Amino acid sequence: MMTQPHNHPTPDNFADWDTPAESTRLVSYSIPLTGVTGLQFLASAEGQARFCWHTPAEFFAGIGTAAQISAWGANRFEKIQHDAAELFRDATISHKQAVPRLFGGFAFSPNFIPDNTWTVYSPAEFVLPHYQFTQIGPDAWLTINVLVAADEPFDEA
User: Fold this and answer.
1) At 65, is the secondary structure helix, strand, or coil?
2) CA distance 110 to 14
3) Domain-by-domain residue ranges, the chain?
4) How far apart, in whole angstroms, are the C-alpha atoms of residue 103 and residue 2?
5) Beta strands across the sheet bearing 103-106
6) DSSP per residue over 22-56, as a string?
7) Which of 54, 56, 82, 112 is positioned for an S-S bond with 123, CB 3.0–4.6 A?
8) pLDDT for residue 40
9) Is residue 82 within a helix (H) or strand (E), and if so which, with residue range?
10) 17-54, pLDDT tens digit by residue?
11) What is the pLDDT of residues 99-142, one digit of tens each?
C-alpha cells in the first residue's frame, strides 16, 4: 500500500512505486458531534485539502490525508481492492456508523495520461481523510483516522 501524496506513478516509474510501505495499521476513533454542520466543518479548513460528498440523507466530508492508495494500468481495480483490504485488515474502528471511508475514483481508460487539469490524480486514486465528518440522518460524528505502527496498542495511539 502506498501512502505517498502528490507524487504519482507513470508508466515509466511504476515499478519503483510498487514497494511495500512500513508495517502500519489504521486507528479510527469517532465521537458524536452536535451543533456543527458539514459545511461548517469544511469552512473550518479553508485553504487546506478538503472534500465533501452528500445525498439528501447523508453528508461526508474530509480534511487532510491519513492514507492514500493509487494504482496504474489494467489491473488498477484489483490493486485498489487489495490495498484497501490491507488498509482496513487490522484496523481499530471505534464506531460502526462513522466507519472510515475511502473517497476517490478510477479513470475510464487503463492507459490514462492526464492533461494539465488532471495531473494531480492517478488513474486510480483513493484517499482516507485524516479528519472525517459523517452525518447520517440527524446524527453526526467526527472521526480521526491515523496510521500507527502495527504493534502500537490502541490506548497509546
Assistant:
1) coil
2) 14
3) 14-156
4) 15
5) 67-71, 124-128, 103-106
6) PSEEEEEEEEE--S--HHHHHHTTTTS-EEEEE-S
7) 112
8) 96
9) helix 76-89
10) 444 456 889 999 999 999 999 999 999 999 998 999 99
11) 999 999 988 776 767 677 767 777 889 999 999 999 999 999 99
Residue type, 17: W
Q: Which residues of 8-39 are buried (b: 16+ CB within 10 A; e: fewer)?
A: bbeeeeeeebeeeeeebbbbbbbeebeeeebe
User: Is 107 buried (19+), middle (13-18) or exposed (0-12) by CB count in 10 A?
Assistant: middle
Residue 153 cell numbers, joined = 496498542
Residue type, 102: L
Residue 23 grid cell: 508495517
